[in-house]
């Protein structure tokens, strides 16, 4: 998969189609240390998104250890108040960076004022007159997926708070998934559980229809690298892999989208 660095300011930019994804690695590109002003960074990400959407692709921006770029000046009043209520600095930075991505990358072109996020009938955030998007964060990772074709959902997880994944198998997994995980070589089981978890969270975030009560009823076809599901919605599931596998990242999107442009920005693990 070819890599391209547009300028010195950003990490890798990569276009990925179904044929590029391997069962072992998913969509992968390295993280590099950022040397950019905030204005240059956001402009580079925005331009990459515009170019991807212009070609009919989806776009994913993934930020790692970018707390210094979190800027509350670009938040609407209600979001600034929400940010102030976070007790942990890391949670506040993640929320602000997520909103910064929405402001700089998703909002309608030509709008200069901070954008107010609207909430759909199932609780999914959206911006009127803008592409579909979804934001996820975990640990020091923040991800934003953008597509002109609904639905789209993304989940990034570090799994830092899970002590033993086996305690969650009965709650999270479909019987077929559980068998697949338990029959896999021991050194592959945790990775398969992470794949299962993030796929289901990405589906939940794409549909916004509250699958949490019956996640075990959804089979995300762990044996397949890039499955297309018909239930609970028509979705293609893909994976993005960062250096050293510190975070697991899954993407759920409209199967009609021909490719995904993934942009990783930040410091190596």
TrEMBL record:
Molecular functions (GO terms): holo-[acyl-carrier-protein] synthase activity; magnesium ion binding
UniProt KW Magnesium keyword: no
The keyword Transferase is assigned to this record: yes
A Gene Ontology biological process term: lysine biosynthetic process via aminoadipic acid
GO CC term, one of those recorded: cytosol
Residues of the signal peptide: none
Highest taxon of the lineage: Bacteria
Entries under Gene3D superfamilies matching the protein: 4'-phosphopantetheinyl transferase domain (3.90.470.20)
Keywords: Transferase
Residues of the 4'-phosphopantetheinyl transferase domain: 151-228
Family: Belongs to the P-Pant transferase superfamily. Gsp/Sfp/HetI/AcpT family.
Protein name per its UniProtKB record: 4'-phosphopantetheinyl transferase domain-containing protein
Natural source organism: Dyella monticola
């Amino acid at each position: 998969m070819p890599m391209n660095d547009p300028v010195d300011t950003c990490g890798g930019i990569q276009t990925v189609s179904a044929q590029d994804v391997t069962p072992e690695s998913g969509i992968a590109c390295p993280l590099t240390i950022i040397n950019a002003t905030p204005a240059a960074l956001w402009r580079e990400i925005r331009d990459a998104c515009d170019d991807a959407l212009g070609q009919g692709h989806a776009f994913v921006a993934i930020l790692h250890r970018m707390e210094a770029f979190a800027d509350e000046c670009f938040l609407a009043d209600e979001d600034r108040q929400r940010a102030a209520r976070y007790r942990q600095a890391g949670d506040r930075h993640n929320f602000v960076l997520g909103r910064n991505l929405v402001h700089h990358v998703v909002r309608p072109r030509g709008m200069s004022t901070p954008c107010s996020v609207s909430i759909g009938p199932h609780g999914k955030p959206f911006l009127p007159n803008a592409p579909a998007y979804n934001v996820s964060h975990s640990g020091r990772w923040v991800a934003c997926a953008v597509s002109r074709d609904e639905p789209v959902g993304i989940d990034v997880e570090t799994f830092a708070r899970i002590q033993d994944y086996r305690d969650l198998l009965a709650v999270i997994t479909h019987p077929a998934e559980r068998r697949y995980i338990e029959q896999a070589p021991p050194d592959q089981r945790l990775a398969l559980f992470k794949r299962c978890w993030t796929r289901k969270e990405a589906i939940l975030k794409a549909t916004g229809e509250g699958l949490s009560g019956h996640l075990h009823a959804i089979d995300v076809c762990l044996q397949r690298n890039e499955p297309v599901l018909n239930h609970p919605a028509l979705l293609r599931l893909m994976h993005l892999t960062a250096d050293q596998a510190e975070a697991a990242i899954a993407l759920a999107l409209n199967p009609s989208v021909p490719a995904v442009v993934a942009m990783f920005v930040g410091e190596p693990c």
